[in-house]
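Structure ticket #2291
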Amino acid sequence: MTKEELLEIILNGENSLVEFKRDEISPAKLAKEVVAFANFKGGRILLGVEDDGTIQGIQRDKEQLERWVMDTVFGRYIHPRIIPIYEEIQTDKGRVAVITLSEGTAKPYVVRSKDREDYYIRSGSISRQATREQMARLFESGGMLFAEKLPVSGSELESLDQNRLKGFLSLIGDKETPENNSDWQDRLYQLGFFNDPTKENPFSTIAGLVLFGYSPRKILPQAGIRWMAFEGDEKDYEALDDRTLDGPLVPLKIASPAGRFETVNNDLFEFLFGAMQPILSKVTIGFDDSFRRERHWFYPIDAVREAIVNAVAHRDWTRNEEVEVVSYSNRLEILSPGALPNAMTVEKMKGGQRSARNPLIVNVLRDFGFVDARGMGVRNKIIPLLREYNKTEPEFQATEDYLKVIFYKGKNNQ
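Resolution: structure written out below.
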């Protein structure tokens, strides 16, 4: 970093990626700032700068300060270990030490001090202790917690559709059907759809409820899909359609005498497509001899289905919002709650990298044929289908709160 680059950073002030600290800061307080950045998107800590941007400078010699930062602060207080970039820049008003951190790949990071472990996150220009919900997201983003296996308070065995469960067991080749409630609880526990049946109040897990529950939203409010449609290109008070759909993610499958599986009841995705059809398609009359009436979709239907299934399959269940699908005059937006998991980025996703936040849900959806067997639907299906259909590119917006996929209509589908 040059002196000019440093002075420009100081001129812009503190923000979510920059923190100013005096030279005499305690190791525990510096560790707090480091952990908050590592649990966020990374950032820079400038030692020898006042909160108002005044350069105070550092008094300790370079070797002494660097050893203190690397061995004392990073070596003793921060867990798991993370290695920063340390450099010092000489200015006209004194030396400034710059500690640069990338986003941590082993979240959550903690400050270990006095037999305690404290979790911190970055909120604007402030580092603060993480709430219970934020800690859950940190554990999940680091792959140490699968929220889909958390029990849902208030659920019970009767909350799940046993016929759908029987169809699933047949589909995966399980020839033994549980005979009573106790056997069902044991079998579902083995599959990850129920918590420990030996507990006084056993509950369905999130995965079990959203996959096979009669009405998951009655117990888990963030389940289901919010569908909205607007006449213009922005949200308005007057919507063409606005409803939240509820139901199990998988259909009821029954094995026929010939050994084939037939769908006899629809799933949440089919409920949604039924609601979307009048808005996202139109009926045309062909010009062949039969004058057949054909339905023309404004977007490639397989790409839309893939994006919606992905939004549900990979959503963050620690967040209280439901998946949103919103139609505008010129585009379709599909929003999945939660940041991308496990250091995933949009570029990695488009390149074909895979990182399932909810592997149990994803595997069941794959059993039912909803999910691409190779897990590369973005690269191999969504992008090429949209290019072929209307010569447009899907847009992906990833934030700390959501992943949004945007499909544009294209000139031929206005």
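Closing remark: The longest helix spans residues 62-77.
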